Amino acid sequence: MASLAGASSTMSTINVPRLSPRSPKSLKFTNVIPVVTSRPVRSKQPPICCTKLTPWEPSQVKQAPAEDAGYNFLQKTTNIFETLGSENTAEAPLAKTKEVTDDASKQPLAELQFLKWPMWLLGPSILLSTGMVPTLWLPLSSIFLGPNIASLLSLIGLDCIFNLGATLFLLMADSCARPKKMAHNCNSQPPFSYQFWNIIANVTGFIIPLLMLFGSHKGFVQPQLSFIPFAVILGPYLLLLSVQILTELLTWHWQSPVWLVTPIVYESYRVLQLMRGLKLGAEISAPAWMVHTIRGLVCWWVLILGMQVMRVAWFAGFSTRARKQQYSSASADA
User: Where are the transmembrane segments (predicted)?
Assistant: First the structure.
């Protein structure tokens, strides 16, 4: 309104005469019609700000920003498309992400299971080729040249080959016994009673030959037997028994699921080892007490082996009962 008032102050009037139609020759100006003219005026006036809208214009809807939003709209990046793209990515459903991760995790598991299948045949084959074949098909005359150090080293070499095969077999058995999902723990701890009686059996089988050797040197047992023939007959037996005790302690400490199989593997070979000792005793003309000692050890380890097999049957039944109880508790909770 101020600009209109300024413009009206600069207006000027011009009088225009009015023609009278009385005679065409003489024209007289009777009335004057005022004509308003204005010259352009340059004035620097502030702009008019009108906050009132006309009735036909819709009012703008204002939305207050939510306090829990935690971010300003379209202020994350300078590009609107980048902002919208990032928000859509962040709001993607979690189900698709879980499906992708599950598919990615199933691939290595399937590959591992595929690699475990040949172990069911490869492990027993290694155990057979390293333990049974040399003992059953290798002639005794090729490794036994008499009661001397060479024969002792040859026999120890055969037992070392078996121990290598048994170690590979136990490693494969441990790998096959592990669960499919690596995230699940597979800690198998044997009961204390099993550990106690197993240690008693091993220590008994270790002490009996040493007591017989001590009695022979002290003269309690006749005839006496020197150390070298005794080492050739029962030296490999004592060495492999020490390795078995160490292996069992390691499986208990690592809580490996092969703790139930380890004594069966070694004790089965020990029976063949003692039967070989009987043949060697006949070759070197060992005294009768030595032969009876070896026979007693064979019977002892056959008894222990039978108890180990019964332990496997008991453990299978115990696992079945525990699985049924777990399923019943899960169904009751559901």
Answer: 117-140, 152-172, 192-215, 227-247, 294-316
Give the C-alpha separation, 234 to 206, whole Å: 10
Give the rounded percent of residues in the chain with a pLDDT score beyond 70. 63
Paired tokens of 26: 């003489």
Is the residue at 4 inside a domain?
A: no
**Helix ranges, the chain (H):** 2-8, 80-90, 94-116, 119-127, 133-137, 149-177, 192-218, 227-254, 262-283, 288-333
Q: State the Cα–Cα distance between residues 213 and 224, nearest whole angstrom.
A: 9
- 63 within domain boundaries: no
Q: What is the mean pLDDT of the chain?
A: 75
- As for how many domains the chain has, the answer is 1
Beta bridge partners of 267: none
CB atoms within 10 A of CB 132: 15
- Which residues are CB-neighbours of 258 under 8 A, at least 6 positions away? 170, 173, 174, 177, 251
Task: Give the separation between CA 117 and CA 136, rounded to whole angstroms.
Answer: 29
Distance between CA atoms of residues 244 and 238, nearest Å: 10
Looking at the predicted structure, is the pLDDT value of residue 224 above 50? yes
Tell me the pTM. Answer: 0.64
pLDDT digits (tens, 9 = 90+) for 58-95: 555 555 444 444 444 445 444 444 444 444 444 444 44
- Full domain range(s) for residue 271: 104-322
- Tokens linked to 326: 């777990």
Over residues 165-198, the pLDDT tens digits come to: 999 999 999 988 877 665 456 667 888 999 999 9
The identity of residue 182, as a single letter, is: M
Q: Burial code of 188-222, b = ≥16 C-beta within 10 A, e = fewer?
A: bebeeebeeebeebbeebeeebeebbeebeeeebe
What's the distance, Cα to Cα, between the start and end of the chain in Å? 81
Q: Is the pLDDT of residue 17 over 50?
A: no
